[in-house]
């Protein structure tokens, strides 16, 4: 069993959706595993005036889908405390400091603090600055966890980072990208290190193209207001897609530790081939969903809290390239959209004929399925790798390996408690991703798209297929 960890968590936005849907179940998972035991406390802060008891009731309710052990859930909830808080009010930080310090003594947490921003992004900087000015940092460790989105552009990301780094150093900042918590994404590096043929195959000599798809079957549901400020380019491409590309394209790290991984990731993002505004139309396609064929599913523009003439994209496909010896000339096709036929997160690696010289048969595609199966499948030409009769990938060694897979937030929470930044986004990686995405955003914002341009429950606009056909390629997952 893992060693017990000690900390006081301060969750800004403790009454919110993220806290209840993801954070409390994740902390409970750690409690059940004995990673959190006696020496931890959680302070939830939000604007409303809640009592500790009421707050604890909401925490227990958030666990009912995953457990029915009332006694355990009640014992867990006793570690939770509520502090009514307005992010701009200095007095509230002083009250928070007092409570955290009292809980430090009560639960003997070694003054370790995890500050979790489960609050609107516009408050991230303000909260961090108050943590500094009101002297909340302690002599234990002090770790700041930031949810997405990290900025809306390169400039705003720089501004946000500037305000965070007045209080926290880079090695105290944990930028969440929950895709990096998913089992298969985490295992990708291990798979590469363990399978020599696979690792040897990952370059422009043997790979024809790489495809990364993060599709959703749902529309925006009740998040229209947020989506109108984001769009897929900011919501999915800039962070999740870029991080997944990075995990495939990076060089083999010297070791499986945070420093070595971020070193090779930094290099790969620095080698992104510059995109000029003129290339945006050639290499990127945007779309917005209309109704489905039956008219039962609404068009994006008819969704709640969405402008009837909205130009926000709900689909993006594009071609990303690297200016490197290893990957020069290999297109990385990316695609993400809402109201596609299925929810799927996958990486398809398509080999060329030269790969035969390292034992990979002609027309081979290796597919790494990230979701919805959460990591249980690697396919070679569409069938389970174990049955594929090709020796490219041997993993996992144990068939039941993924049965013990942790939920993404749980696994990332353990990393935070361990002080391990391996599965978090570092500032230099993020800067390069924003610089790249800004070129596309600025070009698109200067033109009016012809939306809607794809029917709900389809694979996006025709231009998304044409993008690959121009290069003599096609999407592996084509429904
Ligand atoms: P939410 O609106 O459900 O919760 C926001 C919380 O902030 C509430 O607890 C609210 O009381 C508190 N709050 C608002 N104004 C405040 C103020 N002035 N002072 C103090 N507290 C205040 O939002 P959410 O969906 O939980 O999202 C929280 C953060 O997580 C956002 O940054 C969001 O982008 C990010 N995020 C959310 C999800 C998700 O699935 N919900 C996924 C990824 C990232």
UniProtKB/TrEMBL annotation:
Substrate binds at residues 178, 182, 216, 235, 338, 343. It catalyses: D-glucose 6-phosphate + NADP(+) = 6-phospho-D-glucono-1,5-lactone + NADPH + H(+). Keywords: Carbohydrate metabolism, Glucose metabolism, NADP, Oxidoreductase. InterPro entries: G6P_DH (IPR001282), G6P_DH_AS (IPR019796), G6P_DH_C (IPR022675), G6P_DH_NAD-bd (IPR022674), NAD(P)-bd_dom_sf (IPR036291). NADP(+) binds at residues 47, 86-87, 148. This is Glucose-6-phosphate 1-dehydrogenase. Residues 10-186 form the Glucose-6-phosphate dehydrogenase NAD-binding domain. GO terms for molecular function: glucose-6-phosphate dehydrogenase activity; NADP binding. The active site is at 240 (proton acceptor). Catalyzes the oxidation of glucose 6-phosphate to 6-phosphogluconolactone.
